[in-house]
Amino acid sequence: MTTRTETGQRAAPGTEPFYVLPDPPRIDMQEAPYVARALLTLMRRYSDRPDVVVMSQGYLCFNTRSARSDWLAPDCLVSFGVSLKAVTRRNGYVIDDWGKPPDFVLEIASESTGARDYTVKREGYAAFGVGEYFRFDATGGEYHDRPLAGDRLVRGEYEAIPMVGSVDGSIRCYSESLGLYLCWEDGRLRFWDPVAAAYLNDYDEAEDARLAAEDARLAAEGDRVVAEDARVVAEDARVVAEDARVVAEDALVEERVARRAAEAGQLAAEDARRAAETELERLREQLRGPTHPPLGS
After folding, report:
1. Does the CA dihedral 102-108-111-117 come out positive or negative?
2. Where on the phi/psi map is residue 138: left (φ > 0), alpha (ψ -120 to 50), or beta?
3. Disulfide check for 107: which of 117, 128, 148, 241 has CB 3.0–4.6 Å away?
């Protein structure tokens, strides 16, 4: 494959006229689930980095004047230190826009494209200067030359990155650009973070985790609502009890007032009785008249 043509000379970085790249051919359905999982896993990892491009099935070329036959459409591409917004507007990755090729490319095997991935495309990505080129074959090597392979660009040519196998049949290969191990595990592509000593969640795992977190949030919200209802019921009961206490105190006060009024009435009646008896005695004294001394004394 050639990447420099008479009509496609390299342009100085930043001088490429703006041109929206056409959409590449649709991805093979055999590859689609693996591409989607890899893409979403890496997009999630760099979601807070606007200077990192993670893209799929956009054309990669030196510039838009180069021959269309030279263009490649990676299943997954990662490039650091570039503008995601600008690449999105371009609808692809134009190397002359940034003065640098992508740092990482991944191709997923399928029956129709597998042979090209480890032959023509391997040469093409080396010519483009892609720092690392990885290939994954879910079948274990039926469509590629091996289940998992990685190449690192050294002086313009790819050198194979050592594979690490284990007794369970899984294979790992370290990507320096990503700082991750790509793993072939029973036909599944996974990414291992050696710093966190954990796999990155793929789409299904992330969705399961999101759903579990949402269920936990809803359960906590339900508990909060139940607790709030219980608090409201308790507050209502407290208010009812307080109202009953106030009513009881009012009744007690009224009872005391009535008792004191009755006592005051009894005292007034007693005073009136005594006053009447005194007045009656006085009247009797008047009727008896003055007391005269006996005659002849």
Report:
1. positive
2. alpha
3. 117
Contact 204, 37 (CB under 8 A): yes
158 three-state secondary structure = strand
Residue 4 has pLDDT above 50, yes or no: no
In angstroms, rounded to a whole number, what is the distance separating the alpha carbons of residues 93 and 87? 6
Q: In what order do the strands lie in the sheet with 171-175?
A: 163-165, 171-175, 180-185, 188-193, 198-199
Length of the chain (residues): 297
- Which single residue is written with the structure tokens 């009012």? 250
Question: CA 272, 273, 277, 283: dihedral to nearest 10 degrees?
Answer: 40
Q: How many other CB atoms sit within 10 Å of the CB of residue 89? A: 11
Write the single-letter amino acid at 141: G
Rounded to whole angstroms, the Cα distance separating 119 from 242 reads: 86
Name the pTM for this structure: 0.67
Pick 176 or 226 by higher pLDDT.
176
- Output 257 or 116, whichever has higher pLDDT: 116
| Nearest alpha-carbon partner for 63 in 125, 126, 8 | 8
pLDDT (tens digit per residue) in 218-260: 767 878 877 888 888 889 889 888 888 888 888 888 888 888 8
CA–CA separation, 40 vs 33, rounded Å?
11
96/87 Cα distance (integer angstroms): 12
Give yes or no for a contact between 164 and 171, defined as CB atoms under 8 angstroms apart.
yes
What is the per-residue pLDDT across 17-38, written as a single tens digit (0 to 9) for each? 778 999 988 888 888 899 999 9
Look at residues 172, 164, 176, 92 and name the one whose alpha carbon lies nearest to residue 128. 92
